[in-house]
């Protein structure tokens, strides 16, 4: 499947799966509702009680793990960066999270919440991006962090004619 080479304003699950290697049960972003190049995005995660993490965190009090909120922020930023590289004819090869700084958790995220990841680019140099992320539920800040990641790319191979 070839990714469109135009800038995108949003990404559904099919585009997300083209951009990052994560899959269930570790795919933590359902869609990007707003993308501004590689500058900023808003990602959505619908937190469901059916997710396996709630069997142990915590039974009877389903709290979405804070580490997974940070991972979801990183995945949202990763989709945005990968999409910008795909638009340049480059295919994402691997994405590594490098650092997490200043992480703070303000309120618990519960099963049934809609988690929004608001990501804003702070810096970009070579293949390393740095983003500030805020996670919100119903407009209230639930977590925040600065995240950096490395994205390795390779030239896209043209698809063979069918």
Characterization of the model:
It catalyses: a (3R)-hydroxyacyl-[ACP] = a (2E)-enoyl-[ACP] + H2O. Keywords: Cytoplasm, Lipid A biosynthesis, Lipid biosynthesis, Lipid metabolism, Lyase. One of its GO terms (molecular function) is (3R)-hydroxyacyl-[acyl-carrier-protein] dehydratase activity. Pfam families: FabA. A six-stranded antiparallel beta sheet has the order 1-2-4-5-6-3, with helices on one face. The chain has a single domain (13-155), classed as Hotdog Thioesterase (Thiol Ester Dehydrase, Chain A). It contains two helices and six strands, in the order αββαββββ. Mean pLDDT is 90; it is low at 1-6. By secondary structure, it is α+β, with helices and mostly antiparallel strands. The longest helix has 22 residues, at 66-87. The chain has helices spanning 13-19, 66-87, and strands spanning 31-36, 40-46, 90-105, 114-125, 128-137, 140-155.
State the total count of DSSP E strands: 6
CATH class: Alpha Beta
CATH H-level superfamily title: Hotdog Thioesterase
The fold-level CATH name is Thiol Ester Dehydrase, Chain A
Helix count equals 2
At a glance:
The chain has 162 residues and is of the alpha+beta class.
Secondary structure layout plus pairing:
Layout: H1 13-19, E1 31-36, E2 40-46, H2 66-87, E3 90-105, E4 114-125, E5 128-137, E6 140-155
Antiparallel strand pairs: 1-2, 2-4, 3-6, 4-5, 5-6
EC number: 4.2.1.59
Family: Belongs to the thioester dehydratase family. FabZ subfamily.
Catalytic activity: a (3R)-hydroxyacyl-[ACP] = a (2E)-enoyl-[ACP] + H2O
């Amino acid at each position: 499947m070839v990714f469109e080479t135009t800038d995108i304003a949003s990404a559904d699950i099919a585009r997300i799966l083209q951009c990052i290697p994560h899959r269930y049960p570790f795919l933590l972003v359902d869609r990007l509702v707003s993308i501004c190049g590689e500058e900023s995005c808003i990602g959505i995660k619908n937190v469901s009680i059916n997710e396996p993490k709630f069997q142990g965190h915590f039974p009877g009090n389903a709290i979405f793990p804070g580490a997974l909120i940070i991972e979801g922020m990183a995945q949202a930023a990763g989709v945005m960066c990968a999409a910008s590289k795909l638009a340049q004819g480059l295919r994402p090869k691997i994405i590594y999270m490098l650092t997490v700084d200043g992480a703070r958790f303000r309120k618990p995220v519960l099963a049934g919440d809609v988690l929004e990841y608001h990501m804003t680019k702070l810096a970009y140099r070579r293949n390393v991006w740095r983003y500030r992320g805020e996670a919100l539920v119903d407009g209230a800040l639930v977590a925040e962090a600065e995240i950096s990641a490395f994205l390795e790319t390779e030239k896209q191979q043209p698809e063979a004619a069918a």
